Amino acid sequence: MSDQPNWHKSSYSSANPDNCIEIADNQPRILIRDTKHEGRGPVLTATPAAWSAFTAFAKESAV
Fold first, then answer.
1. Digitized pLDDT (tens) for each residue of the chain, 63 residues in all
2. Which residue among 23, 29, 38, 48 has the highest number of C-beta atoms inside a 10 angstrom radius?
């Protein structure tokens, strides 16, 4: 595990770079942030189990 988060854009983010979220999954908790506030905004955290449940729900609910 790295000391620094390894941020990558969500595969479901829009083509517009101002409407993206980034995920870091190389930490004990999943980190989620808005690219508009990169490095200075709030970061949402989730357990790996909660993140997995959320992404599964999002995939099932996608229209």
1. 568 999 988 776 666 666 788 999 999 999 999 888 777 789 999 999 999 999 899 888 876
2. 23
